[in-house]
Each structure stands twice: as structure tokens, then as C-alpha cells.
Amino acid sequence: MVPGLHLIPAEEARRILAETPPVGTERVPLAEAAGRVLATELRAPANLPGERRAVMDGYAVRAADVHAASELSTVTLALVGVVPMGNVFRGAVAAGEAVAISTGGFLPEGADAIVMIEHTSSTAESEGVGRSVEIGRAVAPGANVIQPGEDLAAGAPLLAAGRRLRPQDLAVLATFGIVDLPVFRRPRVAVLSTGNELADLGTEPTAAQIPNANTYSLMAQIVEAGGLPLNLGVAPDRLDAIAERIARGMEADVLVSSAGVSVGELDLVREALVNAGAELHLWKVDMRPGKPITFGTLGDKPVFGLPGNPVSAMVTFELFVRPMLLAMQGRRGPARPTLRATALAPIVNRGSRRGYLRVTLEARDGRWGARLTGDQGSGILRSMVAADGLAVLKGDTTVAEGQEVEVIVLRQVSL
Ligand code: AMP
Ligand code: MG
Question: What pLDDT is recorded for position 3?
């Protein structure tokens, strides 16, 4: 047994990694802020709306003037003008007067309510001054008017720190004239694939080689987790070659390598990391798939040695690297949503390790059903391609058909 090798629950490893502090902040223009994580709490800098505004097309009136109006007994008001969109009505609405107004128009002084156009009839062809309007409906003060601060009051909490910005957030920020804002920096993540047997994309594998797959799945997972990948390519199983890649990887904030870290094999990635000065832990995580993973720090930078098997590399990234990358961007909360699904066929976890089994999710009568993607061998890429989620099962357990199972959702799904 390798010194320091101890079995730890996957949840403990995830907890440790999710405590990694943010990498820093930067200011970005509003137009580039979607999907970024807000670094400070924002409060409404002013009332929204700032002024009283109409929420209907109609006539701005004094409610007291029309309190007796009805369809059978209309009240006639003098039409003294129009609120032009993009401008204010210069003047005030006096007793017995009305001003035509469109949705969004700023309420003229003196008026306190809007009568919807449907409840009026204008005696004129056009809404010119000097005409009149028949009001066929009473309105209460404030009717069809949005008051200052009714949407958001000045000083009210607007967006919390750690929030991943959504399109609607940008709308509200633009409304307040916020042109740029502080967000957490996206961590740069160097990706290294190792193995003499690997042929990288664009080179023809020899008879004894296999194509490098991990670089591409890992870079995509990094992007999906908000990081910026740095491709270090493939290093052959040679210490100097790996060392050179590790040195280049230190441009990034994190280094993720795959393969060459299994116990008992030519352990060059670990040796190269240690030679570079890394402090390493070899974690034997209580999970399947996934052999031991190496985690450590080189300087102040986290480094990972993930298993080489493409499925194991992806699942260990998902469970361990992703929570850390989210934490490094100040994101709080679970790294993925989970749901409880009904097993559509038995889901069996053979062996004592906790299983993260690839499942499809299918909507059934407004509930989720889960089904294994097929062969769960960690060499079966197809099972990962088909997976909507990972069903989490304790060691040596079977979830019978119709029973519930917890699923980590990997793909956006809807009932
Ligand atoms: P290792 O962890 O080095 O023992 O690798 C485990 C298995 O994963 C071996 O069959 C490797 O050939 C394979 N493998 C390692 N790295 C990659 C990669 N980048 N792309 C595809 N398969 C890989
Ligand atoms: Mg290898």
C-alpha cells in the first residue's frame, strides 16, 4: 500500500475541494457578464421606476373627477394634451381635465390614475387639444399606475454575491445604467494527457496507439464549469516530457492531468509533480468508477491526477474538479442539481464501493424515471454519451424497479 493512501468518502473529498477560495475578481462590461459570477452584492441604486408611469394605454385623470363614471352615466373631461413617449407632458392635469397617455408614459402632474382606453370614447378623430373624452368607468387613485420604487425600492437587495448572472439580471443592471461590474475571475485550467499509447487528434494512431480522448472531454468540462482551458497536449511517459508540461501548466491556476497515476504502475505524473515541488495526497476515494485520484498543491495551485480511463476521468472531474472550479469562481451551493427518480428497471451496484452509475432520465406521468445506460464498464464511452445523470448507490445495493434513487443531474432535462 502506498503511504498516505486511505479510503475517504467521495463526499468528504468534495467538501474539501469545494472550500477552495476564489481566484480573484475582475470588472467586465455588462454585455459580457452573462454566465459570470457576481463578486459583490448589488443593491438598487435608485427607485425603479424612478417616476410614476402608466401601465396601460388610456387617459391620465384625477380619480376624484371620475368616481361617479359608469357605462350608463359617463363623465366628460376636457382633453388637454398627450404625453409624448420619450418626453414628459409639460403642464398639469387640472380638475375636469384628461391627458392621453401610452403604456410606459410618465404620469403628468395633477393626475393620479389611468382610465384604460377601452373604457373611454374620444369625441374627436384625433387626440388633439381642445377636444373631450367620455369616461365610462370609475377608477381608484393609483389605478393602472406603477409608483416610484414599486418594482425595486432604492437600496433594496438586488443581486447577491456569488450569483451566476442570468439574462434577466442583465436587464435590471442595464435599467440602472450599470455599464460594468465586478465578477469572479474564470480560473484557467491546464489540461495534460499522458501516455506513450496516445495519438493526439490530427495524427494517425499507429497499430499500438489509441486516440487521445480525455483532453477534449476535460477541456469541455472545464468550459462548462466556467473555467478557461489551456491545452498542454499529450506527454509521453517520460519524466522530462511531463516536467516540461507541468512547468508550462503553471501559467494556469489549476493543473488537471489524466492517466499515469494508478497505484503500481509507472507512476510518472506523481513523480514529476513531486519533483516540481508539489505536495500530494493520493486519495483512494470510496467510489466506482474511479481509481485513486491524486490531488495536491504546487505552490498555491491545485493539481489533479485523474485516472486515464475516459469514463473515470470524466466522472472524477465531475465529482471533484467541478466543485472546486465553481468554488474558485465564488459560486455557492451544490455543483449540480439532484433529483429523486423511480428506477424503471433494477439498478444494481455490485461491489462494496459507492456507485455513481450512468443513467438516462425519462419523464413518466410527471415524475422522473431512471434507467441504467447499459454496461457500466469504465471503458464504455457510449454509457457516458447516453447519460443524463449519475445515480448514487451505496456499495452492494440494488434499487428494485419502482423504488427511488438519488440522481445527480448532468444534463438539463425537463419533465
Ligand atoms: P492509466 O490510468 O494510465 O492506466 O490509463 C487507463 C486507461 O485509459 C488506459 O487504457 C489508457 O490507454 C487509457 N487512457 C489514458 N489516457 C487516455 C486519453 N487521454 N484518452 C483516451 N484514453 C486514455
Ligand atoms: Mg498510462
Answer: 46
Pair (60, 208) in one structural domain: no
- What pLDDT does residue 260 have? 85
* Ligand 1 pocket test, candidate residues 232, 258, 316, most atoms within 8 A of CB: 258
Strand segments, DSSP code E, in 30-117 are 42-43, 53-54, 58-61, 75-82, 97-101, 113-116
Nearest CA to ligand 1 atom 7: 309
* 357-373 confidence digits (pLDDT tens): 999 999 988 999 999 99
pLDDT, tens digit, 9 for 90 and up, residues 17-47: 999 999 999 999 999 999 999 999 999 999 9
DSSP code of 88?
Answer: -
Output the CA 109–ligand 1 centroid distance in Å. Answer: 74
The model's pLDDT over 289-310, given as tens digits with 9 standing for 90+, comes to 877 788 999 999 999 999 999 9
In a domain, 1, yes or no: no
Binding-site residues, ligand 1, Cβ < 6 A: 193, 195, 197-198, 210, 212-214, 258-260, 262, 265, 307-310
Instruction: Tell me the per-residue pLDDT of 330-353, one tens digit each, with 9 for 90 and over.
Output: 997 889 999 999 999 999 999 899
Domains: count for the chain: 4
Residue 351 lies in a domain: yes
Task: Specify the ligand 1 atom closest to the Cα of 307.
Answer: 2
pTM > 0.90: yes or no: no
Range of the domain at 30: 25-49+150-184
The neighbour count for residue 403, using CB atoms within 10 Å, is 11
Q: For residue 388, which amino acid is it?
A: D
Structural contact between residues 5 and 119, judged by C-beta atoms closer than 8 angstroms: no
Query: In a mutational test of the pocket of ligand 1, which residue from 191, 196, 198 has the highest number of ligand atoms less than 8 Å from its CB?
Result: 198
In 92-196, at which residue ranges do the beta strands (DSSP E only) sit?
97-101, 113-116, 120-122, 131-135, 145-146, 157-159, 180-184, 188-194
pLDDT number for residue 397:
97
